[in-house]
Amino acid sequence: MCGIVAAFGEVDTDKCERMLDRVQHRGPDDTGVLALDSAWLGHQRLSIVDISRGKQPLANGDGTAWIVGNGEIYNHEDLSAKLPPGMLLTQSDTEVALHLAMRDGPASMAKLNGMFALAMVTATGDGLVTRDPMGIKPLYWIDGADGAMFASELRAFDLDDRPRVASFPPGCMWTPAAGIVRYADAVPVGFRPARREQHPVWDSGTLEKVRDSVVLAVRRRMMGDVAVGVFLSGGLDSAIVAAIAAEHARRRGDGLPTFAVGTKDSSDLLAARRVAEFIGSDHHEVVATAESIGEELDNAVEVIEHYDPALVRSAVPNLLL
């Protein structure tokens, strides 16, 4: 989790600095800023990939384009292999997106596989902001007559600006010249229920494709130069993810830490414990009480900036952990 702030047009540098300060908790490892006449980029970094060289904003080789990002681009190694040798200055997945956009244009963002919010700018004032198709990574914005501002959290914006803030649409990109354009759908048209080919019975080949897709998705999410753990509820979904992750970690010579949160002797804790024993993970438990859950409820609403009961319910265990 990192925090980004971007502004284009008539830039109020002091306002941008205030916005960046308000998302400092998203990136305790480093702070970076780029200020141009008609654009501003800010980054609060939580180091995951290329810890020593991945400071943002990242620049291209001749210092004419820069990028800040929050998230992960899972296919960055495949994409970087198609770039000219020596072009990349780091192993950062975010840098790959910058070179891709500079070489192939904004439409190339459709090639990214991951969860991300990215903002780029060039020395000539051109810019590009984009968000992943599922909207996993948060991004908010104000599209004003005198320019546009973007940030990872609603709280980043000044109080006077907040009534004008909107959620930046997933699967979209924005440029100063073209405005907002959709580049991808969360669910591709061919996979939507109304158009999806119906199969009364799934044969072994189809099941194998599903299995391979799930395994690949889990392995991609284990990229990074820091340890990865799994939140384990003991349910089917998290058990499958944890089992795949544990096997992948073993092949790399690592162990897998798993974590469970629940009330004393709850079914979640008991089930998670059984799964952890079966897959051989380094398991940790947090026993929640009515008091500790109550203390985190208000905090959960503040952190996720949402009142949706399902989101609040899932946020509380994360905060307890």
Keywords:
single chain; 321 residues; alpha+beta; Glutamine Phosphoribosylpyrophosphate, subunit 1, domain 1; Rossmann fold; 2 domains; six-stranded antiparallel sheet; globular
SSE arrangement:
Layout lengths: L2 E7 L3 H10 L7 E6 L3 E7 L12 E2 L5 E9 L2 H5 L12 H12 L9 E9 L4 E5 L8 E5 L2 E5 L14 E2 L4 E4 L3 E4 L21 H17 L9 E2 L4 H16 L5 E7 L3 H13 L2 E7 L1 H15 L4 H12 L1
Parallel strand pairs: 13-14, 14-15
Antiparallel strand pairs: 1-3, 1-9, 2-3, 4-5, 5-6, 6-7, 7-11, 8-9, 8-10, 11-12
Helix pairs in contact: 4-5, 5-6, 7-8
Word description of this protein:
This protein has 321 residues and is an alpha+beta fold. The relative contact order is 0.10. Strands 2-3-1-9-8-10 form a 6-stranded antiparallel beta sheet, with helices on one face. A 6-stranded antiparallel beta sheet has the order 4-5-6-7-11-12, covered by helices on one side. A 3-stranded parallel beta sheet has the order 13-14-15, sandwiched between helices. The chain folds into 2 domains: 180 residues, Glutamine Phosphoribosylpyrophosphate, subunit 1, domain 1 (4-Layer Sandwich); 96 residues, HUPs (Rossmann fold, 3-Layer(aba) Sandwich). The mean pLDDT is 90.
Low-confidence stretches: none
CATH class of the largest domain: Alpha Beta
Structural class label: alpha+beta
Q: Helical amount among residues, as a percent range?
A: 25-40%
Instruction: Name the strands of the widest sheet in spatial order.
Output: 2-3-1-9-8-10
